[in-house]
Amino acid sequence: MRTRRHAFSLVEVAIAMGILGFVIVTVVGLLSVGLKSNQVSLEETRAALMLTMLEADLRNTHPGLNTNASAIFHLPLPYTTNASGYAFNALQSGDFFTTGVNDSEQPTNLTGARPRFQVSVTYLDVPAVNSLKPMTARLVVNWPGTNTTNATDVISSASVRGSVEALVSFPAP
User: Fold this and answer.
1) How confident is the model over 24-51, as pLDDT tens digits?
2) What are the pLDDT digits (tens) for 1-20?
3) Could you state, in order of their start, the residue ranges of all structural domains in the chain?
4) What is the rounded CA–CA span in Å between residue 14 and residue 16?
Protein backbone atom coordinates (compact mmCIF):
# COMPACT_ATOMS: atom_id res chain seq x y z
CA MET A 1 0.00 0.00 0.00
CA ARG A 2 1.21 3.39 -0.88
CA THR A 3 1.14 6.20 1.65
CA ARG A 4 0.45 9.60 0.40
CA ARG A 5 2.48 12.49 1.76
CA HIS A 6 0.68 15.65 2.73
CA ALA A 7 2.35 18.97 1.96
CA PHE A 8 1.35 22.56 1.48
CA SER A 9 0.48 23.63 -2.01
CA LEU A 10 2.02 26.67 -3.64
CA VAL A 11 -1.26 28.59 -3.26
CA GLU A 12 -1.39 27.92 0.49
CA VAL A 13 2.22 29.08 0.94
CA ALA A 14 1.52 32.28 -1.05
CA ILE A 15 -1.55 33.08 1.08
CA ALA A 16 0.42 32.47 4.30
CA MET A 17 3.24 34.75 3.08
CA GLY A 18 0.71 37.47 2.22
CA ILE A 19 -0.84 37.31 5.69
CA LEU A 20 2.60 37.36 7.32
CA GLY A 21 3.62 40.37 5.20
CA PHE A 22 0.44 42.26 6.19
CA VAL A 23 1.07 41.59 9.90
CA ILE A 24 4.69 42.77 9.67
CA VAL A 25 3.72 46.01 7.87
CA THR A 26 1.02 46.69 10.51
CA VAL A 27 3.41 46.12 13.43
CA VAL A 28 6.08 48.38 11.89
CA GLY A 29 3.44 51.08 11.32
CA LEU A 30 2.30 50.92 14.94
CA LEU A 31 5.87 51.13 16.18
CA SER A 32 6.19 54.77 15.11
CA VAL A 33 2.89 55.63 16.82
CA GLY A 34 4.15 54.04 20.04
CA LEU A 35 7.44 55.94 19.88
CA LYS A 36 5.61 59.25 19.34
CA SER A 37 3.28 58.51 22.26
CA ASN A 38 6.29 57.71 24.45
CA GLN A 39 7.95 61.02 23.53
CA VAL A 40 4.80 63.01 24.35
CA SER A 41 4.46 61.17 27.68
CA LEU A 42 8.09 61.92 28.54
CA GLU A 43 7.67 65.64 27.80
CA GLU A 44 4.45 65.82 29.84
CA THR A 45 6.09 64.09 32.78
CA ARG A 46 9.08 66.46 32.72
CA ALA A 47 6.76 69.49 32.44
CA ALA A 48 4.64 68.28 35.38
CA LEU A 49 7.81 67.89 37.45
CA MET A 50 8.89 71.43 36.52
CA LEU A 51 5.44 72.72 37.45
CA THR A 52 5.85 71.17 40.91
CA MET A 53 9.37 72.62 41.15
CA LEU A 54 8.05 76.08 40.19
CA GLU A 55 5.34 76.01 42.85
CA ALA A 56 7.80 74.83 45.52
CA ASP A 57 10.30 77.46 44.39
CA LEU A 58 7.75 80.28 44.75
CA ARG A 59 6.47 79.00 48.11
CA ASN A 60 9.76 78.12 49.77
CA THR A 61 12.26 80.80 48.73
CA HIS A 62 12.77 83.25 51.59
CA PRO A 63 11.84 86.74 50.37
CA GLY A 64 14.96 88.27 51.93
CA LEU A 65 17.16 86.23 49.61
CA ASN A 66 17.80 86.72 45.89
CA THR A 67 16.30 90.24 45.87
CA ASN A 68 12.73 88.92 46.11
CA ALA A 69 13.16 86.46 43.24
CA SER A 70 12.69 82.72 43.45
CA ALA A 71 15.89 80.75 44.01
CA ILE A 72 15.66 78.34 41.06
CA PHE A 73 13.70 80.10 38.31
CA HIS A 74 14.46 83.73 39.31
CA LEU A 75 10.80 84.81 39.00
CA PRO A 76 9.25 87.47 41.31
CA LEU A 77 7.99 86.09 44.62
CA PRO A 78 4.48 86.76 45.92
CA TYR A 79 5.94 87.86 49.29
CA THR A 80 8.46 90.47 50.31
CA THR A 81 10.00 91.42 53.63
CA ASN A 82 9.53 94.75 55.32
CA ALA A 83 10.11 96.24 58.78
CA SER A 84 7.01 94.54 60.22
CA GLY A 85 7.70 91.10 58.71
CA TYR A 86 6.25 89.64 55.52
CA ALA A 87 3.88 91.31 53.09
CA PHE A 88 2.61 90.66 49.59
CA ASN A 89 4.85 92.00 46.84
CA ALA A 90 3.76 95.14 45.00
CA LEU A 91 2.24 93.17 42.13
CA GLN A 92 -0.79 93.94 40.00
CA SER A 93 -3.48 91.48 38.94
CA GLY A 94 -2.46 90.11 35.56
CA ASP A 95 1.31 90.56 36.04
CA PHE A 96 3.05 87.93 33.90
CA PHE A 97 6.61 86.65 34.34
CA THR A 98 8.38 83.95 32.35
CA THR A 99 11.74 82.30 31.71
CA GLY A 100 13.11 79.53 29.52
CA VAL A 101 14.34 76.17 30.83
CA ASN A 102 17.04 74.13 29.09
CA ASP A 103 17.41 70.33 28.89
CA SER A 104 19.21 70.30 32.25
CA GLU A 105 16.12 71.96 33.80
CA GLN A 106 18.05 75.16 34.53
CA PRO A 107 16.71 78.65 33.71
CA THR A 108 17.90 80.15 30.45
CA ASN A 109 17.24 83.29 28.47
CA LEU A 110 14.29 83.35 26.06
CA THR A 111 16.23 85.31 23.45
CA GLY A 112 18.29 83.47 20.87
CA ALA A 113 17.76 79.73 20.47
CA ARG A 114 14.37 78.42 21.52
CA PRO A 115 14.58 76.75 24.95
CA ARG A 116 13.20 73.23 25.46
CA PHE A 117 10.64 74.35 28.06
CA GLN A 118 9.25 77.64 29.36
CA VAL A 119 7.91 78.30 32.87
CA SER A 120 5.52 81.18 33.55
CA VAL A 121 3.59 82.68 36.42
CA THR A 122 0.64 85.04 36.14
CA TYR A 123 -0.57 86.62 39.36
CA LEU A 124 -4.36 86.67 38.98
CA ASP A 125 -5.81 88.02 42.20
CA VAL A 126 -3.58 90.34 44.19
CA PRO A 127 -5.20 91.36 47.50
CA ALA A 128 -4.92 94.79 49.05
CA VAL A 129 -2.25 95.57 51.63
CA ASN A 130 -3.02 94.05 55.07
CA SER A 131 -5.75 91.89 53.54
CA LEU A 132 -6.25 88.34 54.77
CA LYS A 133 -7.37 87.23 51.33
CA PRO A 134 -4.92 84.85 49.57
CA MET A 135 -3.08 85.72 46.37
CA THR A 136 -3.83 83.40 43.43
CA ALA A 137 -1.49 82.64 40.57
CA ARG A 138 -1.58 80.60 37.39
CA LEU A 139 1.55 78.53 36.78
CA VAL A 140 2.24 77.21 33.25
CA VAL A 141 5.00 75.03 31.81
CA ASN A 142 4.94 74.71 28.03
CA TRP A 143 7.17 73.05 25.45
CA PRO A 144 8.96 74.13 23.45
CA GLY A 145 9.68 77.62 24.76
CA THR A 146 8.03 80.40 22.72
CA ASN A 147 10.60 83.24 22.85
CA THR A 148 7.79 85.55 23.90
CA THR A 149 6.65 87.34 27.01
CA ASN A 150 2.97 87.30 25.99
CA ALA A 151 0.77 85.29 28.38
CA THR A 152 -1.55 84.00 25.65
CA ASP A 153 1.31 82.58 23.56
CA VAL A 154 2.45 80.13 26.25
CA ILE A 155 -0.68 77.97 25.82
CA SER A 156 -1.49 78.69 22.17
CA SER A 157 -1.57 75.47 20.15
CA ALA A 158 -0.17 77.44 17.21
CA SER A 159 3.12 78.11 19.03
CA VAL A 160 3.59 75.20 21.48
CA ARG A 161 3.23 71.42 21.29
CA GLY A 162 1.93 71.08 24.82
CA SER A 163 1.50 72.69 28.22
CA VAL A 164 0.57 71.86 31.80
CA GLU A 165 -0.80 74.38 34.23
CA ALA A 166 -1.96 74.77 37.81
CA LEU A 167 -3.87 77.36 39.78
CA VAL A 168 -2.28 77.96 43.18
CA SER A 169 -2.98 80.25 46.09
CA PHE A 170 -0.55 81.85 48.49
CA PRO A 171 -1.99 82.55 51.95
CA ALA A 172 -1.79 86.01 53.42
CA PRO A 173 1.49 86.56 55.29
Assistant:
1) 999 999 998 899 899 889 999 999 999 9
2) 667 778 889 999 999 999 99
3) 10-170
4) 5
